[in-house]
Amino acid sequence: MDDDTQDLCTLWREGSLATGWAMPGDWWTPAVEQVIKAVNRGHGLTRACMALGDARARAGVGVAEGMTDLAALFRLFGSANPPLTALRAFASGWAEAGFAPIGELRCEDPLTGLVSVAYLRTRLAEIYREGTAPRHCLVVVTVTVPDVWERVAALLHAAALLREVFPLGDTLVRLGHGRAAALTTRPRSKRLRDAGVVEVVALPDRYRDALATLSLWT
């Protein structure tokens, strides 16, 4: 990535976070660079925005949140809103991926086999709609090993322990680099302590606040 693209990427991300993007660790995707380069070149924007819409849908990002994110880029270029062609392309890419058969969308982290943050977002939305959020909590394990390869091994160990401790259908998720968690109604943490730092976090009253809490770990 050249310096100009990197600078725009950083400014775009900051602008998106300021307008409500909930998961900082899920923001970057190769399609981000495609869109920036297309805007700079003055051509190829339709294809790039379709690719971005596809990537956002596959990450579990809603179409409105994705369009708000796209608008943050165009504000850097002095436009109040993205061009209609860019919005249409984004929506088209999002729809094609968002309404694809479920089996085609990856919901598991390929390294640990735990579910993705996108899946956890969906599960949280379900329990808030059901009104059962007060009965749930997140048991978060943070691996503190500094060496990258040792950290990978420790994360795999933490994933295995989570499966042993929560074997009965709880949602087990990889939150980000060096973190894994269980969404559960039965908080247990003692057996997880040799895997890393363990926190038991009650879910907040509102779904929006739960997403903000997740952003602290991704």
Structure overview:
The protein has 218 residues and is of the alpha+beta class. The chain folds into two domains: 3-104, no CATH class; 117-215, Alpha-Beta Plaits, CATH 3.30.70. It is built from eight helices and four strands. It has helices at residues 3-18, 30-41, 45-58, 63-76, 84-98, 117-130, 148-165, 207-215; strands at 137-142, 171-176, 179-184, 197-202. A four-stranded antiparallel sheet has the order 2-3-1-4, with helices on both faces. The longest helix is centred in the C-terminal third of the chain and has 18 residues, at 148-165. The radius of gyration is 19 Å and the shape is elongated. 32% of the residues are buried.
